[in-house]
Structure formats: C-alpha cells, structure tokens
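Recall the central idea of this unit: under ordinary conditions, the amino acid sequence of a chain determines the structure it adopts. In this exercise we apply that idea directly, starting from the sequence alone.
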Amino acid sequence: MTTEQRLSSLERTVRRQRSMLWGLPVLLIGTVLVMGAGGQDQQVVRTQRLEITGMKDSPAMVLTSDADGGILQIQDHSGTSVLDLYVDSDGGAVVVRAADGRRVGILASDDESRGLLILSANEEPIVTAGADADGGLITVRGPGESLGALVGMAGDGGGLVNVMNPSGEARIILGGKSDGGEFSVLDADGQTVVAAYSDKDGGLLSVRNNQEGTVVLNAALADGGGFVRVLDGQGNEKWRSP
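Accordingly, the structure predicted from this sequence is:
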C-alpha cells in the first residue's frame, strides 16, 4: 500500500466516525443497573434517554443508545456538549468541543486503524495522526484541503517526511531506513533538482537541471575515497576530479 493510499484510508476512518457523531439520533434505548446498599437490592431501569442533572437542574451528562452502540455526552451549564464518547460495532470515538459546541478534536478507531484529528475554527482537519498495521502517519494541512506536510513511519522501521505545496504536490522529501537516508528537492514540475543519498557504501550529492540531467555529482565512498563530476544535460561527462 502506498503512502497516499494509507493516508486516505486513515482519514476515511476518522471522517466516518465524525459523520456518525454529527448525525446520531437521540431516540434510543439503554439499560442501567442501579445497585442498593451492599449490593443487596437491584433494580433495572429501562429508558430511552438518561440525564444526570447538575446543580442548576440542567443536564450535565446525557446517555443514549441504539442497536449499534451508544453515546455519552458531557455538557456545560448552558446545555452545550463539550465532550462526546461514542461506540458502535466498528469501534469508538471521542469528540472534544469548544464552549460554543464546535468540534476541535476527534479520536477514533476501528478494526484496522486509529486516528486523531485536530480541527480549525471552521471544523476543517488541520492535523491528522493515524496508525494501522503498516505504521503511522501525521499530516499538517493549510486552509481548505491543501496539504502542508506529511510525516510517516513505515512498519519496517523506515521514516518519511514530505513537505507539500498548496496543491498537495511534494516539493521536499526526506526519508530514512536501516542502511541510509535520502533528501530530495523538487522543482515546480515535480522534477528532482537536488538529491542527497547515503547507504552502507557511502554518500552521494547531485544537482540536476529540470530535464533530470545531472549537472554536478559528488560522491564519498566507504573506503575514504570520493569524486566530483560535472555533466551536461544529457549526462555526458564534462569534467571530473580526481
């Protein structure tokens, strides 16, 4: 699975939990066991909605349920929900709200992945963090749907950082794995113009033109040697030292 596919899957998990929380109806059936002193007296109370009131007789906690699961809402003195806990057959979610009821954070999970969303004032995802069987991903977005940065950790121990332009296209890539790393800078057309690589045999730094032809190539080898080469746009060597 590619990085983009994993990111889309994780975001779909969190968005699905968010949409269910947004439209969950409040006409539900719950069962509460009320225990008497010493546990000797037991009663079963069946209700469509359970409210626990605060000092001013306004609901402080509201518990509801349906065939798939239930939701617990914790409200402030004005009746605005500030924390929602939700569970269904796929998993669960926690929603944290601002004083005016706007969602500012969502934590959700299902059988395949877990995710965290931090939302803007317009309830747009700004920071997304998720994990599945292959590893974890963190994304940072600008206004709207523009992707600002992507940080990923693969299951094999390798890491990845992408810095995007407003259109979501990678312009800086930093990657690492057990035997080395890679750093790339891309131009407006998505072509690599600066690249640095390293592995167990040494390192390599190249500067390219926008046709992918290497202009300057520097290498350091494991035996302590190295070289510098200058090539034209077609890759023909023009100068080398030593």
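The two ends are 43 Å apart (CA to CA).
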